[in-house]
């Protein structure tokens, strides 16, 4: 089950997991067409896909989503908490609403999905939780106090939960991408992008597929002994 899987990094994660033989439950918030498109690609690879519209920030909607997906398959083995938003403003101009909204989707959303699907992951015997954090949660960024707090929160959650659910043979890891070419980065003005590039030793932005490959690895049996880890995918920007 991948949240926010209709576009960007989530879309590539859904496709990459299906290519490795996973059946895919696609959560999306807004674009049914895009979600259906991902489902079609997954089905072309020979795997099943289901889509469901739900706001990860709503505990009730995620509960309903679980009921829906459970009708089609017993339970999930891999949960990828990918959905995320940013509402950037300098801190002194940041409205409480922008703080609340970003924390609700990015951090409470991870709580909601993990809390609701945890029982199924326990039943799986080899459950995997993979949270998408951000380099901004590690090093901060001007204009992103709310986003940084939410992504740093995910790192704390990942480590605490990894300790709690290890006894259930569930691993919990996070990926901290740097700047990845998706709609989220497309909105950054060119001048700012040039500045960012100067701070990336590998001298390029990352691709969503590069994050998806790491998710596939963390979800695979090869990564069974890795838990509580934060995997940087950032071209060397933060070490
Ligand atoms: P994106 O905007 O292309 O995709 C975000 C996805 O999340 C979309 O599918 C959107 O519909 C979904 N979403 C947003 N709010 C939701 C909600 N309330 N409920 C369900 N789904 C919701 O951005 P992306 O770059 O693909 O981002 C994916 C994740 O990676 C996010 O958590 C983001 O913070 C993180 N990230 C991105 C970058 C980057 O450079 N692109 C860097 C670090 C971390």
Describe the structure.
49% of the residues lie in helices and 13% in strands. The chain has helices at residues 8-19, 32-44, 59-72, 96-124, 136-139, 145-165, 183-186, 190-198, 208-219, and strands at 24-28, 49-53, 78-81, 128-132, 171-177, 230-233. The strands form 2 sheets. The protein has a 4-stranded parallel β-sheet with strand order 3-4-5-6, with helices on both faces. A two-stranded parallel sheet has the order 1-2. The protein is globular. Residues 3-4, 6-10, 27-30, 55-57, 82-85, 105, 132, 134, 177, 179-180, 182-185 line the site of nicotinamide-adenine-dinucleotide.
What keywords describe this structure?
binds nicotinamide-adenine-dinucleotide, Rossmann fold, alpha/beta, 4-stranded parallel β-sheet, globular
Q: Report helical residue fraction.
A: 40-55%
User: From the alpha-carbon coordinates, what is the Rg to the nearest angstrom?
Assistant: 17 Å
Q: Write the element-wise H/E pattern from the N-terminal end onward.
A: HEHEHEHEHHEHHHE
First and last CA, distance? 30 Å
What is the topology, as strand order, of the major beta sheet? 3-4-5-6
With helices defined by DSSP (H or I, 4 residues minimum), what is the helix count? Answer: 9
Quick one: biggest sheet?
4 strands, parallel
Bound molecules: nicotinamide-adenine-dinucleotide
The helix-and-strand class reads alpha/beta
- Structurally, how many domains make up the residues? 1
User: Quaternary status of these chains?
Assistant: single chain
Q: Tell me the name of the CATH homologous superfamily.
A: NAD(P)-binding Rossmann-like Domain
Compute the average pLDDT.
Answer: 97
CATH level-1 class: Alpha Beta
């Amino acid at each position: 089950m991948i949240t926010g899987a209709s576009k960007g990094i989530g879309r590539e994660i859904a496709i990459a997991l299906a290519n490795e033989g996973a059946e895919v439950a696609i959560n999306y918030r807004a674009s049914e067409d895009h979600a259906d498109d991902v489902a079609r690609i997954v089905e072309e690879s020979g795997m099943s896909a289901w889509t469901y519209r739900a706001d990860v920030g709503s505990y009730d909607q995620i509960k309903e989503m679980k009921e829906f997906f459970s009708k089609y398959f017993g339970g999930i083995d891999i949960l990828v908490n990918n959905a995320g938003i940013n509402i950037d403003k300098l801190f002194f101009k940041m409205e409480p609403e922008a703080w609340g909204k970003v924390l609700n989707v990015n951090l409470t959303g991870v709580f909601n999905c993990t809390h609701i699907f945890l029982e199924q992951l326990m039943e799986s015997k080899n459950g995997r939780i993979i949270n998408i954090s951000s380099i901004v949660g590690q090093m901060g960024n001007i204009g992103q106090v709310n986003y940084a707090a939410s992504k740093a929160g995910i790192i704390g959650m990942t480590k605490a939960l990894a300790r709690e659910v290890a006894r259930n043979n569930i691993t919990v890891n996070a990926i901290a991408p740097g700047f990845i070419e998706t709609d989220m980065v497309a909105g950054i003005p060119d001048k700012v992008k040039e500045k960012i590039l100067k701070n990336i030793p590998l001298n390029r932005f990352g691709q969503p597929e590069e994050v998806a490959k790491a998710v596939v690895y963390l979800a695979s049996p090869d990564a069974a002994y890795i838990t509580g880890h934060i995997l940087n995918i950032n071209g060397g920007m933060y070490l």
